[in-house]
Structures are given as C-alpha cells and as structure tokens.
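Box 3.1 A note on notation
Throughout this textbook, protein chains are presented in two layers. The first layer is the amino acid sequence; the second is a token string describing backbone geometry. Keep the layers aligned when reading.
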Amino acid sequence: MRRHALSLTVALLSAAFAAPAMAAVPFLNASCPGGIDVHADEGGPVYVQGRETALKRFNDRYFEARDANTGITLSISSNEDGTPQISYTGRGGANGICQVSASGTPSPSEHRDHRRHDDDNDAALPREVTCESTGQQQVSCDLNTRGNVEIVRQLSRTRCEEGKNWGLSRHSVWVNGGCRAVFRNVSSVTTPAPAVDTALGACNMRKGAQGALVTQMPVGSDYQELIIDYPDGRFLCMMRNNGQVQSVTPVRRH
C-alpha cells in the first residue's frame, strides 16, 4: 500500500513540476502608438521594430515579450475566440493599446513569400537617412531597418531619444517632437558566397593550375574554405565572399 502511495506522490510531483508547453503565439502584425511595429511568427518569436524579443509565458492565454534595446514590454493575451489583444509599456511611463492588423496561420509558402518580399524591400531601401520632425509633427523616412539602426549625427537642439521621439517601423524610421538626426543601419552586410565555379576558377587562377574541387565550406560570415586537388597535391584555398583569394597553401603533396 505504501509503495502505491509513494508512486502516486511521485507522479503528482512530476506533473506539478513538468516544463510548461511553449506559448501558442499566433501569426500577427500590429502597430502600437509612436510607430512601434510588432510582428510574430506562428509559435514565436515576437519581434519589436524588427528585433527579436525575450518571450515569457504565464499561461496558455497570456505572455509577455520584452525588447531590452528599447525597454518596450508587450502584453499579449488571447480572447475566447483566439484573437489576440496587445498592449505595451515603455520607458518614461509610455503605454498604449496596439492595433492588430493581421492574424491567422499562414501557409508555409505564404510565410516564405512574405519573408522574401520583406527581404527584397529592405535591400532596395537606403541604409542611411536624415529624418526631421517639422512643426512637432511625426514624420516617417524610408530606411532599411533590418538589424541595428543608430543615430550617427544629432542635428536638432531637441535631444532625440529612442522610444520617445524616434523609433523604427518595418521599413522606415519615424521622428516627432522636433527630433532631427542622421540615422544609419550599422549592421554589417553579408556578401553571399560566390558560386562553386566562380570560387574554383579564382583559386585556380591564383594557383596557376587546373584543380578539382573536393569541398567548399563557409568560415564565419565573410570567408570560404575550398579544398582542391591539383596535379602536385591537395591544397587549401582561403577566399573572401567577394571573390578575393587570400591564400592557397598545400595540405598534402603527392
């Protein structure tokens, strides 16, 4: 009898301390007062101004997402019918209700097309812009906001403070309250790796011989490592993603 009671106690404790299921974050896009842009993929993560937030689950219908960079905390809850409600708090007592503009579960192809469309739009946008609030009005200026955007030059007497009188939307920076500054996307631009034939051709030209590619692997975000068999042995070719060969060194000679 005691053995059955002990087994039951262990089972109850295991259930009580079991890891909670991941919050069922719905796919959504929302806009909060002050030009704050919110996006969530189905199941998470949640993005504020294009940056991934830290997600905290309280129960199946309520969770919070915090962006440490801006100090914005989103409170996300679900109604009985599953539709989300979002409010936010920020630095200096800022707060408000966000308007959900789209929700639902996209198909995988729709999701890929959405991401590809955003990537194409971002690539066509400037990485630096001067944005000025005239007459205390809010103004939006096109900018590639994927990654980290900073003020590189303050132009107004009014101090520009992120989350107060300037911030980021999906494809623009907004200013108000007299803020005027030069904004720049300071994230590094990753150059795509060269095609196999192009990379091998560059290494062959540097070596002065025709070789057969064994492997091509990325090294970090800027380099490619190619192992190539040449008539006189196996060589390691290190090259930048822009096609510039750094070195061709022997690995094993015949």
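The CA atoms of residues 198 and 243 lie 8 Å apart. The radius of gyration is 26 Å.
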